[in-house]
Design brief:
The chain is mainly α and 639 residues long. The protein folds into 4 domains: 88 residues, no CATH class; 243 residues, Up-down Bundle (Growth Hormone, Chain: A), CATH 1.20.1250; 49 residues, no CATH class; 204 residues, MFS general substrate transporter like domains (Growth Hormone, Chain: A). Helices cover 64% and strands 3% of the residues. It is built from 24 helices and 5 strands. The strands form 2 sheets. Strands 2-4-3 form a 3-stranded mixed beta sheet. Strand 3 and strand 4 form a beta hairpin. It is globular and about 75 Å long. The N terminus and C terminus are likely disordered.
């Protein structure tokens, strides 16, 4: 639907007084409604229909009906040439934009090539995180110079769990902090294509150093191997973090420039291909490719480490990453690319500094009220500042300030995501340990975390092909903020499920509340964890992909990478907050760990719903652009 305000017109008294020729049912006639812009004539017509009164301006009902006929003819008449130029038959008229159902368009091949690069990034991150723990913590097995455990435990440096946890935590925080730099470079200096290209080269160099650190000749000197590993992590993080900051926006831009077009299905149904729905589809399939990379990396690299050695585990993502620069070179002249915008970020900082001048106080309540005032940025629009008092850097129009306001609203939504990621991270780190206390049916305990990306790969097409089209057909407006709220609720239920399962483990384990140190598992199948991973996957489809889409839709065009980088930063913040829960992340406190996280997430769900209920209502109204009038009721009224 296009932007604007909706004004639905109903005719309850017209039906009773004038006796329509056939019963009127909004649901039955939903596909035959005509939609017209809200004009004074139509507004008065709706009032007369409900009050059975003549109008003081237009006069009698018949006179007003004549005005309506003249106005409707302007909107629903046949296409005509303007100034001798033929009309594109695929370009919808105003009436068709209002009445025809909307569908997402197919993604261009260039979009899938960009998604391939993100798949490589996830394969690298998830695979290396899975391998780092054993590589650093466990000692080199006997008679295995490559570190492969085969029938035993794989290992290399033997530096203990503390060092392994520290390196893995640093890697996660580094990868999710670097996007700020990558987003700044893309929006301000290099552009997205060049930034992703250079980042791919850096990722290749970093992976090369990981391979060097795992060579049998260097494993005999653990400190030297660790030093090379850390240098590789830093360089690789610069690459993969900068890729994450830009690749999703670059993919969405391949479809966002299109205009609405009419498409005729094989059954004769005419629909409108909506660019906004196409952008939403692009994020769904980007997330699908992302999770294909995640499951491939976390499973393939683990088995490569166990059967051959760590050097092969690091070569697998390198082989895929090596194709990324060539893919980007192929698409250099085929991609839709937004140019960098220069000093836009510094202008934004200066604008916010000017707007908040004198608004900060030692009283946090007063500061909150000042900063949340709806006119905070309107006061510093160029039109509200005399020319002689404007700063030299204020060279932008008022419309750009409105874009910054829209971007700040997106940042308000993103500020709630650390709560969501806090729950995700707790399950990511603790469910693997929980699986070791259950009956694993002969599979490694770290294999079952792959249920999450597998479920994601399965349900994303279901959402795209069935659920979302069903909601659109039935006029159910599942807004982005509603999707995010539903994602919060699904994640909360997943944590509650993990808490209940942990409670039963403590009850049934031979070692009671010390199940992690027990040689025998609790008599519970590990497949009871599948529900946790499924709810987490549902939450990611609803909240995470929508958060990505929301950043793209709300951010100023020349700041999309920076705003998306702030979205990624929420993951790093959640990781830092999660460190505070480490004392609860072991026996016998695990039930309390899940309980506290569940309470926090439930509070986040209700807080999000309450805080954004008005904004969601405004966005719902802005999503409706035209007045919908049923032709049967209108025909009866004009009689």
């Amino acid at each position: 639907m296009s932007n604007g305000h909706a004004f639905a017109i109903e005719f309850p008294s017209a039906k009773a007084k004038y006796g329509p020729s056939q019963p009127f049912s909004p649901r039955k006639h939903a596909n035959h409604r005509r939609s017209l812009p809200l004009t004074p004539a139509l507004r008065r017509l709706s009032v007369m229909a409900t009050k059975n009164e003549d109008d003081p301006v237009y006069g009698t009902r018949s006179a007003l009906s004549e005005v309506f006929n003249n106005q409707s003819a302007m909107h629903v008449g046949p296409r005509v040439a303007v100034r001798g130029k033929p009309i594109d038959p695929t370009e919808p008229t105003e009436d068709e934009l209002a009445t025809l159902p909307r569908v997402p368009g197919s993604l261009p091949f260039t979009a899938y090539t960009i998604a391939f690069i993100e798949m490589c990034e996830r394969m690298s991150f998830c695979g290396t995180i899975a391998v780092f723990i054993n590589f650093i913590q466990q000692p080199l097995p006997d008679n295995s110079p490559s570190g492969a455990g085969r029938d035993g435990q794989s290992g290399a440096l033997g530096m203990g769990q503390g060092t392994a946890f520290g390196v893995a935590t640093f890697d996660s925080l580094w990868v999710y902090t670097v996007p700020l730099l990558g987003g700044y470079l893309a929006d301000t200096h290099w552009g997205r294509w060049k930034t992703v290209f250079i980042a791919s080269i850096l990722a290749i160099i970093g992976h090369g150093l990981l391979i060097v650190s795992s060579l049998p000749a260097l494993l005999t000197a653990p400190k030297s191997s660790l030093a090379v590993l850390l240098i590789g992590i830093v360089i690789m993080g610069l690459g993969t973090g900068s890729i994450k900051a830009n690749v999703s926006t670059l993919m969405a831009e391949q479809t966002a420039h299109h205009k609405p077009k009419i498409k005729v299905h094989k059954n004769g149904e005419r629909v409108i291909v909506d660019p906004e729905l196409t952008v939403s589809r692009s994020y769904l399939y980007l997330y699908l490719m992302l999770n294909i990379g995640a499951v491939t990396g976390s499973s393939g690299m683990v088995y490569a480490e166990k059967l051959v050695g760590f050097w092969l585990a690091y070569i697998i993502p390198l082989a895929f990453f090596f194709m990324s620069p060539w893919v980007l070179l192929w698409g250099r002249k085929r991609y839709v690319r937004s140019p960098p915008s220069g000093s836009v970020l510094s202008q934004t900082v200066k604008l916010l500094r000017l707007a908040t001048k004198g608004k900060l106080s030692l009283n946090p309540v007063r500061t909150y009220k000042n900063l949340s005032h709806p006119d905070l940025l309107d006061r510093v629009k160029p039109s509200n500042i005399p020319v002689e008092q404007r700063p030299a850097w204020m060279t932008f129009p008022d419309s750009w300030v409105d874009e910054v306001k829209r971007g700040l609203k997106a940042c308000q939504v993103l500020s709630w995501f650390p709560i969501l990621w806090l729950g995700f991270n707790q399950m990511l780190h603790n469910l693997t340990s929980q699986a070791a206390t259950l009956v694993t049916h002969g599979l490694p305990n770290d294999f079952y975390c792959n249920i999450n990306p597998i479920v994601l790969v399965m349900i994303i097409p279901l959402f795209d092909q069935f659920l979302y089209p069903y909601l659109r057909r039935h006029n159910i407006n599942f807004t982005p903020l509603k999707k995010i709220a539903a994602g919060f609720l699904a994640a909360t239920l997943a944590v509650v499920w993990a808490m209940v399962l942990q409670l039963y483990i403590y009850r049934l384990s031979p070692c009671g509340r010390h199940a992690n140190r027990c040689s025998k598992p609790a008599p519970i199948s590990v497949w009871w964890q599948a529900g946790i991973y499924a709810l987490t996957a549902l939450s990611e489809v609803l909240a995470v992909t929508t958060g990505m889409e929301y950043c793209f839709a709300k951010a100023p065009t020349n700041m999309r990478s920076v705003v998306y980088s702030l979205y990624l930063l929420m993951t790093a913040i959640a990781g830092v907050v999660g460190i505070a829960f480490m004392p609860l992340s072991d026996d016998p406190m695990l039930v309390w760990n899940y309980a506290v996280i569940a309470v926090i997430m439930l509070g986040g769900f209700f807080g999000f719903c309450i805080h954004f209920r008005k904004q969601d209502r405004r966005e719902s109204l802005d999503a409706a652009a035209v007045v919908q009038v049923d032709p049967a009721s209108m025909a009866d009224l004009q009689k």
